[in-house]
Amino acid sequence: MKKRRLVIRTIILLVLGAAVAYTLYANFTKDNKQKVAIGEMAPDFALVDMQGNKHRLSDYRGQGVFLNFWGTWCPPCKKEMPYINNQYHQYKDKGVQVLTVDIDESALAVNQFSDRLKLDFPIMIDTNKDVMNVYGIEPLPATFLIDKNGKVVKYHKGELTENTIREFMEKIKP
Amino acid sequence: MKDVKCECGHVNPHGTVLCEACGKILDERENKDQLLDMRYEGSARRSQTYNKTIVDKIWNFFSSVKVGVWLIVLTLLASILGTVLPQKMYIDLPPEVYYKQEYGWFGELYYRLGFHDLYGSWWYLLLIAMIGISLVICSLDRVVPLYKALKVQRVTRHVGFLKRQRLFGINTEINDKDLHLVKEHLKERRYHVREENGDLLAEKGRFSRWGPYINHVGLIIFLFGGMLRFIPGMFVNENLWVKEGETAAVPETGETFYLQNNQFILQHYDKDQNKTFEKALERAGDVVKNYQSNVVLYKRVSDNLPGEKPKLEKVKEYKVRVNHPLDFEGYSIFQASFRSELKSMSFFLANKNTNQSVGELEIDLQDPKETYDLGNGYAVKILNYFPDFEFAKDGEPTTKTRVPNNPAFVFQMISPEKPEGETSFVAIKQTIEPFGDNTYKMAFKGIETKNTSGFIVRKDSTLWAIILGGILFMIGVIQGAYWNHRRIWIQQKDGQVWISAHTNKNWYGLKQEIEKVLRDTKLNIPEDQQQSEKTDKEGI
C-alpha cells in the first residue's frame, strides 16, 4: 500500500518534471535554433551560376564544399571576397569547391560586383531566397563547410580572414 | 505509522482528524469544546502524515497551500516588475543600447538582470511551472481523501460530531409522524435521504465539492496548452512579405505552399459618397476603408530541390482583408501591413544645350539591364547600380541594402558626338559629372511604384487545449459557487432527537431550508452555535 503510493508519487513527479524540463529546454534553444545542424547532411540545392551552369550540391560529393552566402551591399562580404578568391585558386585542384550564393539581387549588380573584384568562383543568385530559407541564414555573410560526404562540418557567421579561410579549406580537404 | 481504528469499527488512515465513517474525533488536539473544523471532512491529508523518502519530501513541499500561495505572490511580483520598463519586443533599438540610453543606470541594471525579457526568462517559466505542479499535487492530496471520506460516511454519527456542528438542536419529544413528515419535506426539496436504525442523513449538492478540483483540472489543461506552443510546428507566427505580381513560399509549411500576390488594394472613405460623415472625414483626413490583397494559394506538386523552379498547382484564390484571413490546413494568412516600393525609373537622354530628348529608357529597379540602346547611335550603359545609395565612410558610393529605396546609377552615355561615352552619376535630385562638363544628360522623367503586402502567417494547434481548459475552469467555478453541499442529520440519541446540519457555504440559505423542512412539526429549529458563541462573548 505504502509502496504503491510511493510509486504513484514518483511517476506523477517524473511526468511533471519532464514537462517542465522540456519547456525550459525548448525555451532555451528557441532563440539559437539552427536549421542546419553540424554533423548532419547539408540540404541539397540546385542553382544556376552567372555563366548558366547548373550547380547541384550533391554533385560535389567526394569533394569538400566551401559554401558562402553574401550580398553586394554587405561590406564584410566585400572584404572577404578577394580572400576567398585567392584560396579558391589554391584549393580548387585539391578537391575543395567554392560555391557562393548571392541573396536575391539583380544580375547586373552581381556581375558588376564580381567584375570589379575579379572573382572567378561560381556565383549563383538565390532569387526566391529558397536556399537561404532552407539553410536558415540570418546575418550575411555566412559560410558553411561541407565535407566530402556531404555533412556539415562548420557554420560560420560573419567576416572571414584569409588565414581562417585557409584553415577552413584544410578542414574539408578530402 | 499505523492506521487508526475508530470505536465504530472503521479503519481510518493515519492522520485522520474525524472518523470518516461516524465522525468521532480521533485527533486529541481537536478535542476541545468548540465547533469542528469541517474542512476536507477532517480527512488525513496524505502528505502531512509522513515524511520519509526524497520523493515524499518534494511531494509534501508542493502539497502545501502556503507554498502555493507564495508561488502565486512571487509570480505576481515578478509580473509587476516586467511592466516597469518596456519589454524587448516593444523596443526598436538593440536592448544593450536602448535601456542605458533611455533610462540611465536603472535601465542598464534592468537589462543586466535580464528583466527586458522577463516573461520569457527561465526563472519566470519555472515559477509558472511550479504553480502548475503545486496545483496538481495540492488537488490530488485533498480530493482523494475528501472523496473517500464522503463516500464512506455512515448515516449514524458520533455524538461529539453532531454536538459540535455549527447548526445543532435537541428535541425531547419524539413523534414518528413528525419524523415522517420531515422526511417527506426533505425529499420534496430534492435531498438524498438515507436511513439507518431510525437515524437519518439527508444530503444534497455533494457534487459542488468537486468544483474547485474541476477548476484546477481546467487550469492545468490551460497551462498544458501554453506548454504545447514550445513544441515545433504547434504554433506558427511569421511575417511574410510578397510583392505584387510575385510568388513566395509560405514559411513553416516546409516549402509546400506558395502565395502569389496579384494586387494590393488600399481604399479610403469617400467624403462625397458618405455625406453623413462628411464633417468627421474632413476633420480626420484620409480614413482607410479597406486593406486588401488579392492572392492565389498554390501547392507545390514537384519534387524539386531548393533553388529550382517548383511546379505549382492552384489551390484557391482569395481576397485577404483585415479580419478575413485566408485559411488552409490549420494555417491562416492575415493582412497585416503593406509598403510601397520603387519599381522602375524612367529617364530621357537629352542634349544639355537644346534640352531635346534623343530617346527614353525605363529601368526596372529589380533587374536593370546593362545596356539600353536608344537607336541612331545613342545608347546608355549602366556602369554601376546602387539600389539603396549612400556614401560610405571612405567616400565611395555604396548601397545600404538590396531594396531600391534610394536608387543611384553611374551611366555611360554614348552619342554620335561622343562615341566613347560620357560618364554621369545620377541619384535622386542629384547629378554629378565626375569627368568634367558633359554634352548630354540623363533627365529624370518619372517613377513607378509597386506595393508589397505584409502578411502574418499563423497557425495555432494549441487552441483546443486553451479552450477546453477555459471551459472546464468556468464549469468548476460555477459548480463550486452556485451549488451548496448541504447535509442534515436527524438522529436518535439517548431517547432524544438531535438535529445537526452542515453546509460548505451559504449558512443563511441552509437555515431557511431547515425552517421549511421542519414546518408543521413540533421539532425545534436547530440553533446557530457560532452565532450564540459570538453573542456570549459580546455579552448581548
TrEMBL record, chain A:
InterPro entries reported for this sequence: AhpC/TSA (IPR000866), Thioredoxin-like_sf (IPR036249), Thioredoxin_CS (IPR017937), Thioredoxin_domain (IPR013766), Thioredoxin_ResA/DsbE_sf (IPR050553)
Organism expressing this protein natively: Neobacillus novalis
Cellular compartment(s): Cell envelope
Entry-linked CDD domains: TlpA_like_family (cd02966)
Alphabetical list of Pfam families matching this protein: AhpC-TSA
Domain Thioredoxin: from-to ranges: 36-174
GO biological process: cytochrome complex assembly
Domain of life per record: Bacteria
PROSITE patterns tied to this protein: THIOREDOXIN_1, THIOREDOXIN_2
GO molecular function, one term: oxidoreductase activity
Protein name (record): Thiol-disulfide oxidoreductase ResA
Disulfide bond as UniProt keyword: yes
SUPFAM superfamilies: Thioredoxin-like (SSF52833)
KW Disulfide bond (keyword) present: yes
Automatic annotation (TrEMBL), chain B:
Subcellular locations according to the entry: Membrane
Recorded superkingdom: Bacteria
GO biological process: cytochrome complex assembly
Record's GO cellular component terms: membrane
TM spans (from-to): 67-85, 122-144, 213-231, 463-483
Main localization of the protein described in the UniProt heading: membrane
UniProt keyword terms in alphabetical order: Cytochrome c-type biogenesis, Membrane, Transmembrane, Transmembrane helix
Pfam families: ResB
Entries under InterPro entries matching the protein: Cyt_c_bgen_Ccs1/CcsB/ResB, ResB-like_domain
Domain ResB-like: from-to ranges: 65-515
Official protein name in the record: Cytochrome c biogenesis protein ResB
Gene source species: Neobacillus novalis
